[in-house]
Structures are given as C-alpha cells and as structure tokens.
Amino acid sequence: MHLPGLTIDGDTVKCDGQNLRPIGDGAPYVSGFDTPETGGRAKCTAERMLAELASKRMGEFIATQGLVIEDTCQKDRWGRPLVVLRLLDGSTVGQRMIDEGYAEVWLPGREVEWCVNGG
C-alpha cells in the first residue's frame, strides 16, 4: 500500500489526518528509532540541519510504492499510533533511517545528543 501522507519530521508521519509514530525494527516501549528535532525544538544548528535531512529522507520513504503500514495497536505518550513502516524488501523504514545515518536507536530513557561539540 502506498502511504498517502505527509512527513511531519524524521520520525512522525501523517496519514488520513492522523499522526503516526514509526518504530522501525523495535517493539513498542522497548526499542525503536529517534531522529533530530526540527525548527525551534532543535538545540543547535547541526541538529536542525540533520532534522531537515531526516525529514526529507522519511518523505522519500513514505512515497515508496508498496510501503506497508503495520499497526502495533499501541500508542505513544502523545497518543500517536505506533506503527512499523515496511518496504517491499521486508526492511523497515526505521532501520533504514538508522543504517543511513538519519536516526539513532531509541531505548527507554536514552537521550540522543545531536549537538556534538556545541553544534
């Protein structure tokens, strides 16, 4: 299924008016992926720039023909459904984002530092 949606940022997409939170190869509340914050939520210029690249790459992924949305039937703390976005080759968008350097592994309590050396 082609995801007729929008990219909100590198780890949030909107489909049919609903924000969705992809989790990659992880399991809800156990592991997933995280991307830098956009706009005013970014802590430095480097984070903001990487966030723009991550958002662009996510947009390319959600425009991929054959993309499948797998609902985990769980929601994050903001009420977004946690989903797996799976590509035709069976890989997940989250793992591809990590592999390509646009995201880091998310684990409970882990804060990713995007602003290395003050960024």
Structural summary, described in words:
- By secondary structure, this protein is α+β, with helices and mostly antiparallel strands.
- It has one domain: OB fold (Dihydrolipoamide Acetyltransferase, E2P) (Beta Barrel), CATH 2.40.50.
- It contains two helices and seven strands; from the N terminus they run ββββαββαβ.
- Strands 1-2-3-6-5 form a five-stranded mixed β-sheet. Strands 4-7 form a two-stranded antiparallel sheet.
- Strand 2 (12-15) and strand 3 form a beta hairpin.
- The model has no long low-confidence stretch (mean pLDDT 90).
Q: Which structural traits does this protein have?
A:
alpha+beta, OB fold (Dihydrolipoamide Acetyltransferase, E2P), five-stranded mixed sheet, two-stranded antiparallel ribbon, 2 helices, 7 strands
What is the annotated CATH architecture?
A: Beta Barrel
**Unreliable parts:** none
Number of helices: 2
The rough form would be described as globular
| CATH domain class | Mainly Beta
Termini Cα gap: 39 Å
Q: Tell me the number of strands.
A: 7
Q: Quote the average pLDDT.
A: 90
Number of domains: 1
Largest sheet, in brief, is: 5 strands, mixed
**CATH topology name:** OB fold (Dihydrolipoamide Acetyltransferase, E2P)
Residues in helices, as a percent range = 10-25%
Q: Output the structural class.
A: alpha+beta
Measured by DSSP, the beta-strand proportion falls in: 25-35%
Order of helices and strands: EEEEHEEHE
- Report Rg: 14 Å
> How are strands sequenced across the largest beta sheet?
1-2-3-6-5
